[in-house]
Amino acid sequence: xxxxxxxxxxxxxxxxxxxxxxxxxxxxxxxxxxxxxxxxxxxxxxxxxxxxxxxxxxxxxxxxxxxxxxxxxxxxxxxxxxxxxxxxxxxxxxxxxxxxxxxxxxxxxxxxxxxxxxxxxxxxxxxxxxxxxxxxxxxxxxxxxxxxxxxxxxxxxxxxxxxxxxxxxxxxxxxxxxxxxxxxxxxxxxxxxxxxxxxxxxxxxxxxxxxxxxxxxxxxxxxxxxxxxxxxxxxxxxxxxxxxxx
Length: 246
What we know:
alpha/beta, seven-stranded parallel beta sheet
């Protein structure tokens, strides 16, 4: 379905990002995993390559413009194009607002929102030239409904949703789609570290009565970059088991 296309997945060395990279690879995409942890990115890329799909891991700090420019030059010099960009890299630094340090605010916005801006701006010239491209931003349920102790994270993800729609309006005429996937609570290392009673309480809030899996998110991303989704842009696909219905 997507044979021969080239994708950059940021923060793709583990968790949701790795699941996205794996899903794309299984659909024929040549995947570049960009991650702050270059060794982990290379390890994940090696796993994917075992399936016979070309893949590579590179060092990428999305919050650093120089790092982003260097990564883009390397990818374009090696692969010749970037058809798909998945802005997945993100961090949390939680605290209630009165205890939220300015540095924690700046770092979360820098990675989660400014990083997506840097990477999107980096891939757009090639996409415009080719009149084809798929951009998927990994937002969050928190960006739509807010969350206690996560003012910085909610602001970054809400901003990412607005950014997604602005890019969609600007570049739809160029054959480029821009969409967001907003995961709910996913079964990752973060939720696995929760006390059992908190985890159980969380599951009770979800109509599907389970946490999502990284693969649930990956399948949504794979659909949005497919030919079948070519008439979908500026949308937010919520993957949350019914926890939030808009």
